[in-house]
Amino acid sequence: MLREGDFAPDFTAKNQDGKEIKLSDFRGRKVVLYFYPKDDTPGCTKEACSFRDAFEVYAEKGIVILGVSTDDERSHKKFRTKYNLPFDLIADTDKSIVTAYGVYVEKSLYGKKYMGVERTTFLINEEGKIEKIFKKVKPEGHAEEVLREFK
Given 8, 44, 65, 103, which residue is catalytic? Predict the structure, then answer.
């Protein structure tokens, strides 16, 4: 399990446009790496739109926002376009990133157990270290909650 102070696991994966994104390319900048279960579902849409609505403030502070789910590039492109999201969505179809970050967990719905992504956000500093971890995130107001961590 990752802890605050650990180095964030590096990864290379494709965004909604099929372009390779490498976490280490953002060294020197703060990164909000947020993991969410599924494109275009109520909670995930609320969370993504809250980051969209606060995007200008993040950008002014030089903070990069990256969303990650196990959906594919096509799904991400559709989701991003539909809600006019100004940040990259990373396609983790092989589940390597969600596994490395410990957010691919056993969940339960109506008594049925299944594996899925637990909504979690990592704040990564300029050196690539995890400054803060938000677990079991509530989508409503999350972007503002994260922003308060950046003094």
Answer: 44
